[in-house]
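Reply to dn_fold:

You asked what the input looked like. This is it:
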Amino acid sequence: MIHQGHVHATVGDGFTQRLAIAVGSRELYDFLDNNPFIEAHPVEHVNDPFVVSQNENLVAVNSAIEIDLTGFEVGDSIHFSRVTGAEGLKPTITDRDFTVATIAAPSVAAASDEDDAGDNDAG
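and this is what came back:
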C-alpha cells in the first residue's frame, strides 16, 4: 500500500505500522529491514483488542471466513450475502453479490491416492 501511494508518512509524524508476521519476497524483507515506520511485535500484542481499539481509522482484512454448508449441494455457489462475520463486516466489492465459494465434489485423484496408501500399509 505504501508503494502504491495509499499510505503517506514522514519520520516524526507518529505513524507506524505494527505487524506480527511477514511472509513474502526479498523486496518485502528489504523494505521491512530497519524501516522506521514498521514495528514488529508478538501476535498477542498486535491482535490485542485494547491495542487495536487505539487505531482511529482501522481497516481490518479477514484472513478466513466460516460458512455453514448445511443445505448446499455439489455445484451450488455461495455468495457474500450468505457470509456472517464480525459486526460491521463489509465487502470491498459492492456492486454485486459476488461468489466466495462453489461446492465441489471430492477429487477422484485424492480418493485414489488414499486407496493406494492403504494398499501399501497392508503389504
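Residues 64-123 form one domain.
Hope that clears it up.
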